[in-house]
Amino acid sequence: MNWKKFGTTIGIMWLAYLIYKAITLTLLYSFDGLQSKPYYEFIYFIIVVAITLIILNWTKTLFKQKIRFSPNIVSLKQQWSILIVPLFLYGIDTFAILPSITKHSFYIVMATIASALGAAIFEEVRDRGFGGIGLALSMENNEWKPMFIAIVTSFVFATTHYFNLLMPNAPTLVATHQQVVFAFFMGMTSIVLYMRTGSIFYSILIHFLNNFSFWTPTSDLSQDNGWASMLIFYALIPGLYSLWCLRPKKSEMNLKYLPAKKSD
């Protein structure tokens, strides 16, 4: 294990998030009520895209790698079934509300898209792209490497959601705990899509569909949900899916598109 590269990867993942959070919290506390204004979503989009561009540059500078955005259709054709579970879990609600799009103004629809897409691009580039590449270069290839990368990147992705408690219109602690659990297992499914295709296109798509919900003044407030249904549908099912896809027997397939650590 190259612990220096491992530490650098985790440190920069957190640094990128803390930069984003510091900027957005400063804005939210400087301008009263900004969080409940739809135009904040466009400001948010600009901020996260700017930080994403910095992460892409860090990836090239530190790792001499590029994060692939273009869909690897050839690879997906050979294993199209890996999209079924993520689409069902994270896209079904979006597909259900899309027919109601005409009930909302163009401005609200665009604000919704900006919010959902901005978060999807930023978090997938940071956690699956940069994190996946950095951790892949930190250790030698072995049958447990994909599982290790998935757990570590998902843990970082999930725990950053605790900072939502600092927002002016913050969710409850229970709702935040549920967000963290939800995000961890969503991260596991996302890294599977990234590993199997070598592209973050599909994880961005799933993330966007999950985040898509027509904007309201209280849309940033997460609601407490029943733990039982949440753990079954958003922990057990994606957990089993991820374990099955990341099992050691499939290590060669999961390592195919990840860069390999060079010999010291």
TrEMBL record:
The EC number of this protein is 3.4.-.-
List the molecular function annotations (GO) for this entry: metallopeptidase activity
Domain (CAAX prenyl protease 2/Lysostaphin resistance protein A-like) ranges: 109-212
Keywords, ordered alphabetically: Hydrolase, Membrane, Metalloprotease, Protease, Transmembrane, Transmembrane helix
**TM stretches of this protein:** 12-30, 42-59, 80-98, 144-163, 175-194, 227-246
Please name the InterPro entries in this protein's record: Rce1/LyrA-like_dom
Broad class of enzyme this protein falls into? hydrolase
The source's superkingdom equals: Bacteria
Family, according to the entry, reads as follows: Belongs to the UPF0177 family.
**What is the protein named?**
CPBP family intramembrane metalloprotease
Query: What is the organism of origin for this protein?
Result: Leuconostoc falkenbergense
